[in-house]
Each structure stands twice: as structure tokens, then as C-alpha cells.
């Protein structure tokens, strides 16, 4: 079981009673060192050791806020941000790394986990399928407010509270070489579609059937996809294949911190093909009763931007800065915690 314990320097903790971890065994079965979900349910291409010091524990002691985290770079960073800003506010916090949403969502509902940094549209569709079946009509869209309303309706009966979303958003995105973009005057996916150029796309193997990948690019933007090269979502192999000219277009994400290293730039999704995957906290209701917890997390959410996440991901993935250190430096720099 991978955990990161962040202890507050304060001795007086200002909190409402928190739910005690009901069953350590349940969560222990879920805690592994596997990769987290990407937006295309494929690996994100990062094999970075995020550098968090880990401690074996048996679960929450009832006085600790447990933050759940998937095991990929950005999830680790956001969990560190949550844990450290709450610790600075006077709470004992602990990060528990969990294999996937299908495992940490029940732990959140039961109170074994108190808080999870989530992706709005992806989470809404997870609970939609869980509630209404795998063929349920989608409830998420490119409208974050409407998507949040749909998510709230799905999770309120489960004892979960959805806080505000902010400007930070991790969506599927499509990248080309900077040279290719400049030569053709491309800044948007519409420009690419109107060019009529044949495009080879490096992406996940399921891109050919996912509505936000090949079908969406063809139907919404009129892009002529001649081949999908299954190299993964945002993997080094995907980006290298565009850099060296094997492919023209790469499926990445909006918070990819290493695009510049490969000479790549994003083309704007100017017709809103992608769903609103803004980052926001999801809490169990007992934890959400503590207004200070809510206020602290809302302050962080309102501060964090997509560009901030790009830079934090770059530090961890490219510069090998530990996630715990990158998060702390960011919070101090933004005046969110004491230096």
C-alpha cells in the first residue's frame, strides 16, 4: 500500500469529525503501483518516478484526511497539492495511491478515502455508466457547468459532494510539429481539416472507434485521417513519431509538460470536440461538512490553471523534480502555504 503522510506543524486541528476508515483490508486490495487512467483509458506515456516518500500504513485513524490518488504524474502532483495545502491549514493528511477509479470510488463513498482530485467529464461518465449501464446516454459535454450538474445528480445519492471546478483542464489534445504548424499557418484543428492534407495519427489503439478521437476529428473537423498508428496516448513513442515525420498528428493531453522537448505544439480544439475535464475535488459528505476543508480546496482550485499543470508536469517528467517538492514550491510561490 503506497501512502504519503504529510503532518501539519500545528497542534490544534480545526475540523468537523471525519469518517473513520471502515475496512483497511478493502482498501489494501486496491492499493498497487499500476498506472492511472488517462482520458482515453490508456497509459499516459509517463514512466516517471514522482519521488514521493512512501510509508506503509493500515489506513486512516479517523483523524486524518485521506486523499486518494491514481498512479500517474499529474494525479500524484494534484494529490500532493491537496495534501499540503490542507496540512498547512492544520489538518493531518495522507495520500493513498489507488489503482483505478473503479477501486477508489467505492472507498470514497465508504469514507476510507475522504477526498479525490478528479476530472469532471471523465468522472461524470464513470458514474453514469456505473449507474445506468455501459450503453448509457452520455451526460458529459464540453460545457463544464452542465457536466458538473449532471455529476452532482449522479453522486449525491452516494453520499458524495462535488466542489467547484476551476480553469485547470486536462483534455485530449492533438499536436503537430511547430515547423508543420508554421509552414501551413495552422493554429486550430479547423485549419488542419480545411487544408485537406492526408494525416497519419499516432494515438491509442481504440482511437478508431472513440468519438473524441478519429471519428470526431473526421466528423467535426473534416480531417482526412488515413491511418491510426497505435503508439498510445501521449507516450514518448507517439511524440517521437510526429517529431521524426512518421506521423503528422499526435494524440496527447492539454497538460503534457514535454511537448516542447519534441518540438510539438497543440492545435486548438476550437469547435469544442473534447469534453470538459476540468479538475475539481470530490469529497464524501462527512468530510464536506467541514467548511474549512471546502474553503481551502476551493482556494486551490480557483488558483490552479492548465498552464500551471503543464509546468508542474514538466518539472516532474522532464526535470525529475519530486512531485512532493514541485507541489510545495508551487503552493509557496502562489502564497497558498507558508514557506
UniProtKB/TrEMBL annotation:
Residues 37-65 are annotated as: Disordered. Residues 63-331 form the ABC-type glycine betaine transport system substrate-binding domain. GO terms for molecular function: transmembrane transporter activity. Residues 1-35 form the signal peptide. Transmembrane segments: none annotated. Residues 47-65 have a biased composition (Low complexity). Keywords: Signal. The keyword Cytoplasm does not apply. Gene3D superfamilies: Osmoprotection protein (prox), domain 2, Periplasmic binding protein-like II. It holds the Pfam family OpuAC. This is ABC transporter substrate-binding protein. It comes from Streptomyces lonarensis. The lineage of its organism: Bacteria, Bacillati, Actinomycetota, Actinomycetes, Kitasatosporales.
Amino acid at each position: 500500500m503506497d501512502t504519503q503522510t504529510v503532518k501539519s506543524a500545528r497542534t490544534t486541528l480545526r475540523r468537523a469529525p471525519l469518517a473513520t476508515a471502515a475496512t483497511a483490508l478493502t482498501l489494501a486490495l486496491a492499493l498497487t503501483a499500476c498506472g492511472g487512467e488517462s482520458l482515453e483509458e490508456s497509459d499516459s506515456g509517463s514512466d516517471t518516478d514522482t519521488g514521493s516518500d512512501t510509508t506503509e500504513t493500515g489506513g486512516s485513524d479517523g483523524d486524518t484526511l485521506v486523499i486518494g490518488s491514481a498512479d500517474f504524474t499529474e494525479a500524484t502532483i494534484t494529490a500532493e497539492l491537496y495534501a499540503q495545502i490542507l496540512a498547512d491549514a492544520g489538518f493531518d493528511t495522507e495520500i493513498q495511491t489507488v489503482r483505478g477509479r473503479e477501486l477508489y470510488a467505492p472507498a470514497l463513498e465508504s469514507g476510507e478515502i475522504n477526498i479525490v482530485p478528479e476530472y469532471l467529464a471523465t468522472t461524470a461518465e464513470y458514474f453514469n455508466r456505473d449507474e445506468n449501464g455501459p450503453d448509457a446516454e452520455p451526460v458529459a459535454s464540453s460545457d463544464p457547468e452542465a457536466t458538473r450538474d449532471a455529476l452532482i445528480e449522479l453522486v449525491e445519492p452516494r453520499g458524495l459532494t462535488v466542489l467547484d471546478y476551476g480553469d485547470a483542464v486536462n483534455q485530449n489534445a492533438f499536436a503537430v510539429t511547430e515547423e508543420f504548424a508554421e509552414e501551413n499557418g495552422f493554429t486550430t484543428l479547423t485549419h488542419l481539416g480545411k487544408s485537406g492534407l492526408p494525416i497519419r495519427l499516432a494515438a491509442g489503439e481504440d482511437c478508431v472507434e472513440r468519438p473524441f478521437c478519429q471519428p470526431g476529428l473526421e466528423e467535426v473537423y473534416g480531417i482526412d485521417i488515413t491511418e491510426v498508428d497505435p503508439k498510445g496516448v501521449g507516450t514518448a513513442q507517439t511524440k517521437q513519431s510526429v517529431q521524426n515525420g512518421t506521423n503528422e498528428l499526435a494524440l496527447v493531453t492539454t497538460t503534457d509538460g514535454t511537448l516542447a522537448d519534441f518540438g510539438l505544439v497543440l492545435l486548438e480544439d476550437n469547435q469544442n470536440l473534447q469534453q470538459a475535464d476540468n479538475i475539481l475535488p470530490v469529497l464524501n459528505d462527512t468530510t464536506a461538512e467541514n467548511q474549512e476543508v471546502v474553503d481551502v480546496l476551493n482556494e486551490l482550485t480557483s488558483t490552479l490553471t492548465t498552464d500551471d499543470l503543464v509546468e508542474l508536469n514538466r518539472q516532474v517528467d522532464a526535470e525529475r523534480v519530486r512531485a512532493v517538492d514541485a507541489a510545495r514550491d508551487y503552493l509557496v510561490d502562489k502564497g497558498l502555504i507558508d514557506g
